[in-house]
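USER:
Working in pairs, take the chain set out below, taking as long as you need, and write a paragraph about the fold.
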Amino acid sequence: QVDLAESGGGLVQAGGSLRLSCAASGRTFGNYGMGWFRQAPGKEREFVAGVSWKGGTTNYADSVKGRFTISRDNAKATVYLQMNSLKPEDTAVYYCAAQYLGLGSPLAPHYASWGQGTQVTVSS
């Protein structure tokens, strides 16, 4: 499918912001819906945000709605996750995923391509 590489994770204090980036290569990026998922220690991987392949539809988990924003730049073959008002419970490894002609689904099995993940740690 498409190769994905996340970046932008790090350590921030509660209330701070980070912007994650996911750079795609190998396929036509504009044909893929994109999603962000995260996994904290001892927890299952969970959906964070998604954007459709045309970019006109976005979806967010209730836990991040109003704080996180997903966007895409097809010219740069990159999807972003702007994270504001970060909380300690946002601490996790964040993964980028791609689904051909996807609509930003919250269901992980819909995504065939995954990045390696980037660590986000929010301290209190």
Q: What stands out?
A: The mean pLDDT is 96. Residues 38 and 99 are 17 Å apart (CA to CA).
